[in-house]
């Protein structure tokens, strides 16, 4: 597996990763057989599979799709990045075979899928630590509490200044950057930090995490939040803020010490697609077999191996 860390900055809002339609010069052609390391022959998969959803999950999926393309050139994989909520909307409409999510599926989304007659399986992919960041030019913020975050981010009709949080900090207006309302990261922050209160009305919202990165980089008075991998990819120009004295890193995210902002990442797949579409089944199997290594490579945290084994067992059960 190639080194992917810090390589996701090219993920673009609304674009799709369309990989696998063709392979490299040495790739086995669609319908041909390939020789495995054990010397046996395995027929190459053919077909297409489509997904959409979380921009937080996108770095993992982008790497998996490109590596999969080299192994299975007969399968075209298309993955959009419209946010967790936007991905579920397409999944409910039957437009996609799987939906990437940075939060668990909501009850109303479950109900809509049931109404649409779509059975699905939830697969865990990795752990993430939702990371609160400021510009490297911000030399006053090192640590915030959950109560500080609430005071800053909840809309209360006032103009928020840094000095409101700490009188020793600048008497300058805070500039907010947040994932958009279709983002699972927005939903997660809203649930565990804002407790369903309204987010500040003057925040810049975008489902494209790179837009948030660029805005925060350029303004010492800015603050925002997104997945841990996007912080790692830009740590030369961004500073991660400790939450309650705990900094986000692989250990604190995996153990849950980085609370309440540690969270699992998911993909939800259509049972019908997995049972009837050989390309969808093959791609999901490859995803579960490689998600841990890819997660670590792009800056997230792998699950315990037994979680991936459970996912593979659930997947295999759908084939019977």
SSE inventory with pairings:
Blueprint lengths: L15 E4 L13 E3 L5 E3 L3 E7 L4 H14 L3 E6 L3 H9 L5 E4 L5 H9 L4 E10 L1 E5 L7 E2 L1 H8 L8 H4 L9 E5 L4 H9 L11 E3 L2 H9 L4 E5 L1 H6 L4 E3 L1 E2 L6 H6 L6 E9 H6 L1 H21 L6 H15 L1
Parallel strand pairs: 4-5, 4-6, 9-14, 10-11, 10-12
Antiparallel strand pairs: 1-5, 2-3, 6-15, 7-15, 8-12, 8-13
CATH class of the largest domain: Alpha Beta
- Poorly predicted regions are 5-15, 18-41
Global geometry: elongated
Taken as a percent bin, the fraction of beta residues is: 15-25%
Share of helical residues: 25-40%
Strand order of the largest sheet: 1-5-4-6-15-7
**How large, in whole angstroms, is the Cα Rg?**
21 Å
Label the structural class. alpha/beta
Region (Disordered): 28-56
Biased composition (Low complexity): 28-47
Pfam families: PBP_like_2
Subunit structure: The complex is composed of two ATP-binding proteins (PstB), two transmembrane proteins (PstC and PstA) and a solute-binding protein (PstS).
Task: Report on this structure.
This protein is an alpha/beta fold and 320 residues long. It has two domains: 16-127 and 265-319, Periplasmic binding protein-like II (D-Maltodextrin-Binding Protein, domain 2); 129-262, D-Maltodextrin-Binding Protein, domain 2 (3-Layer(aba) Sandwich). It is built from twelve helices and 15 strands. It has helices at 58-71, 84-92, 107-115, 146-153, 162-165, 184-192, 209-217, 228-233, 250-255, 271-276, 278-298, 305-319, and strands spanning 16-19, 33-35, 41-43, 47-53, 75-80, 98-101, 120-129, 131-135, 143-144, 175-179, 204-206, 222-226, 238-240, 242-243, 262-270. The strands form four sheets. It has a six-stranded mixed beta sheet with strand order 1-5-4-6-15-7. Strands 11-10-12-8-13 form a five-stranded mixed beta sheet. Strand 10, helix 6 (184-192) and strand 11 form a beta-alpha-beta unit. Helix 1 (58-71) crosses helix 11 and helix 11 (278-298) runs antiparallel to helix 12. The protein is elongated. The chain starts with 15 loop residues before the first strand and ends with a helix. Residues 5-15 and 18-41 have low confidence and may be disordered.
């Amino acid at each position: 597996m190639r080194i992917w860390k810090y390589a996701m900055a090219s993920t673009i809002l609304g674009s799709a990763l369309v990989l696998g339609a063709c392979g490299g010069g040495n790739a086995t052609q669609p319908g041909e057989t390939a020789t495995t390391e054990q010397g046996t022959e395995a027929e190459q998969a053919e077909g297409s599979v489509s997904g959409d959803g979380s921009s937080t999950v996108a770095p993992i999926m982008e790497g998996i799709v490109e590596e999969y393309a080299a192994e299975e050139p007969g399968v075209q994989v298309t993955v959009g990045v419209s946010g967790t909520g936007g991905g579920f909307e397409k999944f409910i409409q039957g437009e996609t075979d799987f939906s990437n999510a940075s939060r668990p599926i909501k009850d109303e989304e479950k109900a809509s899928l049931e109404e649409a007659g779509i059975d699905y399986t939830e697969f865990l992919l990795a752990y993430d630590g939702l990371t609160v960041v400021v510009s490297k030019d911000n030399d006053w913020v090192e640590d915030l509490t959950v109560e500080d975050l609430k005071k800053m981010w909840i809309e209360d009709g006032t103009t928020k200044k840094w000095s409101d949080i700490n009188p020793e900090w600048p008497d300058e207006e805070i500039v907010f950057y947040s994932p958009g309302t279709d983002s699972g990261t927005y939903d997660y922050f809203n649930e565990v930090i804002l407790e369903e209160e309204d987010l500040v009305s003057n925040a810049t919202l975008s489902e494209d995490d790179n837009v948030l990165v660029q805005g925060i980089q350029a303004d010492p008075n800015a603050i925002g939040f997104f997945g841990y991998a996007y912080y790692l990819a830009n740590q030369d120009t961004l500073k991660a803020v400790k939450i309650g004295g705990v900094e986000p890193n692989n250990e604190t995210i995996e153990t849950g010490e980085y609370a309440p902002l540690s969270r699992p990442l998911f993909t939800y797949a259509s049972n019908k697609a997995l049972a009837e579409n050989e390309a969808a089944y093959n791609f999901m199997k490859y995803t579960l077999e490689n998600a841990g290594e890819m997660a670590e490579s792009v800056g997230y945290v792998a699950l315990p191996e037994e979680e991936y084994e459970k996912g593979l067992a659930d997947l295999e059960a759908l084939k019977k």
